[in-house]
Write a structure and sequence with these properties.
By secondary structure, the chain is an alpha+beta fold. The protein contains four helices and eight strands.
Length: about 240
Amino acid sequence: MKPPKRNSRKNISKSIVFSLVFLVLGFIMAYSYSLSNANKETEGYTGGAFFEQEERYRKELINQQERNKALRDELQEKQSEVQEYEKSFADGENRYTEYAKEAEELRRYLGVVPVQGSGLKVTLKDGDYNPNSVNPNDYIVHESHVFQVINELYISGAEAISINGQRIHANSYIVCTGPVITVDGVQYPAPFVIEAIGEPKVLSSSMKLSGGIMDQLVNDNIIVTLDEGLIIKMPALLTES
């Protein structure tokens, strides 16, 4: 008995078709699975690298910020040092100026340098003698009168003082001997001209104060005259070598 040829062929064809279909499906599934794994690995690799790079940038930024802070602190410290130096330098200049001014004033006061400037001239003359007076000494200029004038002028800011052209200093001595006075061993007769370098208005005002030196001199019968605004010159004192 012969097998039916037609059905066999159909079954073989179906088997081949199904085999091909399953083969294709298997290939597609395998390809999809491998592609999925590859994408996952790629994604994992990309994310990890990006994270590492971000972490590295973050650390570099932190380091740079710390470096900037250290530089700012160093700059502030240097600026403070410069300010302290400028302050000390300015203080030094001020002290130097003050010392130089004080030294110049001392030289003028001690008489070791010649001086010139405006000032006041005070002339003291013996009073007109009254024959009926018991004591003629009541009408002549004494060293006390000269000392009163000199002290008042110094108190009023006189920088230098001379008597009859002779400059006086801190150790000068004045002695009255009858109608003359002796200044540092040199005798001078009346009238006595006392010159002082300083502010003329101030010196003159101090002499004219009510109840002051000028009034006392007049009460002692001394003739007093004041000349303001003169240019006065005084030589340096001769010092022993």
